[in-house]
Amino acid sequence: MSGKINHIIRLAILDDHQIVIDGLKLLLNDHKKFLIEAEANNAEEMLQKLQQKKIDVLLTDIAMPSGMNGFDLSLKVKKEFPLVKILALSMSEEGGMITRMIDDAKVDGYIPKAAGQQELLTAIETIAAGGLYFSAEVMKQYESFQKIKNENTEMNLTARELQIIECIIKHYSNKQMADELFISERTVETHRKNIYRKTNTKGEASLILFVKEHKLIS
Amino acid sequence: MSIFRHLPNFLLIALVFYSTDIAAQSTQIDLLKKSIETASDNKSKLRAMLIFCYEWESYSPDTLERYASLAQQMAEEQKDEKAVLLCNYYYAVFFTQKGKLDTALKLVDKMLTGYPYGNGDNENFYMAFRLKGNILLRKGMFDDIIKMNFQGLRMTEEKKDSVGMALSILGLGNVNNRQQKKREALDWYLKAVNLLPNDEYRKKYSYFYNNIAIVYYKLAREDSMFYFIDKGLAYSSQGSLTDYANSNFLKGGMLAEFGKTAEAESYFKKGLDLRKQVGDIYYIVSDMAQTALFYLNSKQYQKGIDICNDGINLMRQNNFSTANNDLYQSLARNYKAAGRYEEAEQTMETFVRIKDSLYEKNSADLMAEMQTKYEVQKKENTIIQQKYDLTKKNYFIYGIAGILAATLLLGYVFFRNRKKTQLLKLQQIEAEQKQKTTQAVMQAEEEERKRIAGDLHDSVAQKMVVAKMNLESLGNTIKEMTGPEQKIYQNIASLLEESTTEVRNLSHSMMPQAFAHSGLTDAVKDFLDKISNSNLIIHFSAEGEFKTIPENKALMIYRIIQETVQNVLKHAKATTLDVAMIAENNEVDITIEDNGVGFDLNEVAENSMGMKNILSRISYLGGKLDINSRPGSGTVMAFYIPME
Prior knowledge:
The complex is a heterodimer. By secondary structure, chain A is α/β, with parallel strands linked by helices. Helices cover about 55% and strands about 15% of the residues of chain A. Chain A is built from 10 helices and 6 strands, in the order E-H-E-H-E-H-E-H-E-H-E-H-H-H-H-H. In chain A, strands 2-1-3-4-5-6 form a 6-stranded parallel sheet, with helices on both faces. In chain A, strand 5, helix 5 and strand 6 form a beta-alpha-beta unit. In chain A, helix 4 packs across helix 6 (about 135-150), helix 7 packs across helix 9 (about 185-200) and helix 8 packs across helix 9. The model of chain A is unreliable at about 1-5 (pLDDT under 50). Chain B has a 5-stranded mixed sheet with strand order 1-2-3-5-4, covered by helices on one side. In chain B, strand 1, helix 23 and strand 2 form a beta-alpha-beta unit. At the A-B interface, helix 1, helix 4, helix 6, helix 7 and helix 9 of A face helix 19, helix 20, helix 21, helix 22 and strand 1 of B.
């Protein structure tokens, strides 16, 4: 979904490294459809410039050494300048931050800085045209992070946890379990907590009911 | 005047001066004296002396005192305590004879404590027991006698000791007799006599019969009186001479009372004869006075005068100091009755003169007694004082020694404790220092990592990214590139891209960027994201508030998890990994469980580098590690990190 050539896309670039801004400018200036209207090294300055200039796409770094970071800025921009599209340009692709940028800040695109000219242009054009662009790497991180996050509440009982459940059904005390499984009482207690969380139960009675319902132990 | 005024005297004599199985005769006394002289060693000499003392009734009290004193010296030298006690007893006899009853009583009490009843040979006890009874009787301490004898009766009854019982009962009879309770006295006396087990004792205690005869006399029971005095006479004739003499005088007196003068005279003569054989001047003279009174009453004045003069001469010959007033009185009364008034008057004058001197003598005796008493007391006091001083001295020495020992011990304990505490303190300081150093090193490492990671990420990686951008821009301006030129361009571009990725990954592994903006749990999650693959299914959960954990601590926890998971990757061959983090109650609990091969706790332990890092970080955080693993059944590692 590449845009038309005659349609000028007004850009703003935020990065704490001026050298990155210069690099991007060099790349983008080669293409007539991009007009770099604003640049800044910190989020506060960028917010000011956004008020003065009409911007189509904001290219923003995420990690900032001080003040607001890219995430905070994105939240604010989406609220105050809902017409401005945001493309996150990041040096590191961490599932946690990617997830927050996508789910919470609702950025329009996310690509690594090292993505390359072609992907950069595609991303900007796609976003400017009202689409979303997330690079493959970013999506991969996002998905696996979601997976782990979702599993958080799913029932994935470990071997030890199943042993503990067996002991709970036998109404063993923590001490007895500890002796039987060669672990400390404290670890038994931790296992219990994890079991209650994983099975979404509140105590022995509800756990036993849960175990029967799900036929966990024969 | 009745001769029976003197009967109590006989009774007393009979009570005190009993005899032994050995007939006391002067020849035998000489033999005993000889055996003392010829004794081969001091021990047998002491024994001979004590045997000699035992026969005291056959010689004068002064002789007894001399031998008793010698025997005591020897006994003390030989440290023979029992013998010393016996000597005390003989002293008591001596003092009783001399009328120094308090001293005698003290000494006899010593003897009684030294020879308690039922402790082997009771003869010594009997001796002391009877002597004490006699002393008390003389002092008129009837209550004490009754008490003593009843006590004696109880003790002896328990042992079924009929002799002891007889003696106690006799003592009770004596008290009653003295108090003129004749019937009661008679009852006791008869009981006592019946308890004597055999003739040997009847001979030894023949005076029991005499006592009964006296009571019958008082009760005017003539038949019984003569029956018992004859029995007493018969037994005493086989016993001691003193007892035999006493019985004769008693029989004589009784016969005289019933007008049988001629018969009576023969008994008096026999008695006097026996007394002379014993050889105690005091009693000879005393008996002579009794006999003189008998002559007076039977109007044989010349015989009375003669016997009195004999007695006075005997006294003079023996330098007998204590004059017998009875003798002078008898003489004077015989003179008077015979009408020889002048001689009677002269006798009375002599008597008064002797009496005066006697009075003085008595005073002197009193003085002497007081002196003796005083000296005995003083000696005892000195001994007690010395013993006390010695004890005190000993206690003092023991006390000082004790305090010294205690002080030394205390000092030693204190010193050791101090040394121990110091050592502990030193060790503690060393450990603290070590931990501080470790902490400092770890901190420095983290700082360095952070700095390098930051540089890599912020400077190198950014510049490389920009370099690639520049290259791409250059590529845009060069319109037409040849095939080889195109290739070189592509090479540079991909090299830059790969390097950027590597630098970024390197930076990330050194210091997760997530830390800066996402916190501990996201950093862990990211880390787990990156290692998860189709062969290893990872489950992760985090409960509670982790955001408040200080960065340095969070970083440590991250490193612990990182290290542990890397160990799992390296060694466990696991297909599932479960990482759970719980933050509650100011504590972070982390369990990392895999289903891998597990390991033997004893083998792996702290040797591996990874394990060392984990342990040092846990110790840095003041946390605990609980590992549960067995070969083939996976591993659970549980960490507990306090957050305060």
